[in-house]
Amino acid sequence: MEDNRQSEAVFVIFGSTGDLAKRKLFPSLYNLYVKGLLSNKFAVIGLGRREWNDETLRGVVQEALEESNQQLDKVDSFLTHFSYLSFDVTNKDSYKGLKQEIENKEKDFQLPGNRIFYMAMAPEFFGQIAQSIHNYGLKETNGWTRLVIEKPFGTDLQTAKVLNNEIREAFAEDEIYRIDHYLGKEMVQNIQVIRFANAMFAPLWNNRHIANVQITSSEKLGVEGRGGYYEKSGALRDMVQNHMLQMVSLLAMDVPLQLTTDEIRSEKIKVLRALRLITNDNIDDTVVRAQYDEGTINGQQVPSYVEEDNVDPQSHTETYVAAKLMIDNHVWAGVPFYIRTGKRMAVKSTKIVVEFKEMPLNLYAKEHKATGPNLLIIHIQPDEGITIVLNGKKIGSADTTPVHLEYRHDSEDRINTPEAYERLLYDCMMGDATNFAHWDEVSLSWSLVDAISNAWKESARKPVNYRAGTMGPKEADQLLAGENHAWWPVEEM
Ligand SMILES: NC(=O)C1=CN([C@@H]2O[C@H](COP(=O)(O)OP(=O)(O)OC[C@H]3O[C@@H](n4cnc5c(N)ncnc54)[C@H](OP(=O)(O)O)[C@@H]3O)[C@@H](O)[C@H]2O)C=CC1
Ligand SMILES: O=C1O[C@H](COP(=O)(O)O)[C@@H](O)[C@H](O)[C@H]1O
């Protein structure tokens, strides 16, 4: 039985009139409510500058639930927990009204004083909001207080440090929950179970048996009206700094002493510390940056990146990154971790392929030349599951053939699979920060990303182009070819 007392809290959503709140936060809270994981004792205070009232917000929440195809049988009681306060985060006087509103809701719903402040707003406000929460006494309560912060956490190491210092003046590290929604995905969370709960993988998980690891996160979508943001971010900051490096660290971390937040984070941090630095000297051999050209997606002609709204026609912003990352430690020396991510690619897919080394002497390979390496494929999205690729005998023949052992979640499992945000909100209520990024992870990731970004500034090479609707530029194939490796065709797996 889950401990519902932990979820007896006020959720204060800064930016409740925005896109994230509507598409992700309201449906996730509702799912938790329907599943009984959110106690009946909770209140949500939505904030935004718009002159809305409680009814307007409740109407928007209801619309959000209808759009996300929820069963609406509990919606009326759910909505009674929502209220709205018109609020400008830059106006200090607003916080006095917010304090009063929180206290009123705590009285109305008989809450013990637990408060979650969720920043679903543009990052330039994060520091200021955290400090005002502290300065205006919103943390003075008999319960706990937690701060949930959306990405991006800074735009480089320097800005991330400034932001972190501002936040840390108001909240302790263990009160801060930095969202990386990939850490809420079912199969990303499954990486540790696959690795640490299976005798068949644990002894093989090192440079003696693994040839390379490939992580692909491809999207069909373009920048979808976010050109202004994306111009400054590019795929490097948008996807690599957070989601891709989080997956690398989960795949390469050593076995933690225990499954606690501190132990797991500490092992992940060691991986990030061991990442080989990228410099002007090795950038051209280790990282490929590219930008999409026009092309065809789902049978429709789509424009090139530089023709998108709010994008400079001369832009050099990368919409695709592929990189060969080396982890300079005892376990992984010599094993490339290849990552690639991009917009306007052939498929929407996130997959991890672990390629095992060939046997020293494989008699069948010699005879039949048809054996391939063993693979472990972790399907993160849209399909969820794992595939193990082995060599087997072709039935009725002496030839060998690849055999796929598949486990995919069936449709019933998938209906019950919570969305990433739902899991993360739940973890935050329970005080479990394991699947949130610690400051050390954020800062180490920024160090690598800054090194790449600086080397790009110095490099004579500009981004290459790839046609929209493809799996990226040929240069990304060359990145692997030098090591006699090739990208596995995730679009067909
Ligand atoms: N949308 C998404 O899918 C994702 C978003 N994120 C992150 O989530 C955060 C929010 O994104 P998103 O919802 O898309 O952004 P939106 O632009 O849709 O919403 C911004 C929100 O901020 C509020 N706001 C802006 N200025 C003020 C102010 N001075 N005082 C009070 N409220 C203000 C707006 O309310 P009003 O206009 O009423 O003032 C609105 O509710 C960002 O950090 C983004 O990077 C991360 C991953 C995915
Ligand atoms: O954080 C982000 O992630 C999405 C991709 O998320 P996914 O869960 O659909 O794989 C990406 O589209 C967006 O640009 C980025 O900000």
UniProtKB/TrEMBL annotation:
Where does the chain bind substrate?
A: 181, 185, 219, 238, 343, 348
InterPro entries under this entry?
A: G6P_DH, G6P_DH_AS, G6P_DH_C, G6P_DH_NAD-bd, NAD(P)-bd_dom_sf
GO CC entries: cytosol
GO MF term set: glucose-6-phosphate dehydrogenase activity; NADP binding
- Entry keyword set: Carbohydrate metabolism, Glucose metabolism, NADP, Oxidoreductase
Q: Which reaction does it catalyse?
A: D-glucose 6-phosphate + NADP(+) = 6-phospho-D-glucono-1,5-lactone + NADPH + H(+)
Please report the stretch or stretches of sequence annotated as the Glucose-6-phosphate dehydrogenase C-terminal domain.
Answer: 193-488
Gene3D superfamilies, per database record: Dihydrodipicolinate Reductase, domain 2 (3.30.360.10), NAD(P)-binding Rossmann-like Domain (3.40.50.720)
**Binding residues annotated for NADP(+), in chain numbering:** 15-22, 49, 88-89, 151
Write down what this protein is called: Glucose-6-phosphate 1-dehydrogenase
**Organism from which the protein derives:** Shouchella lehensis G1
Name the lineage.
Bacteria, Bacillati, Bacillota, Bacilli, Bacillales
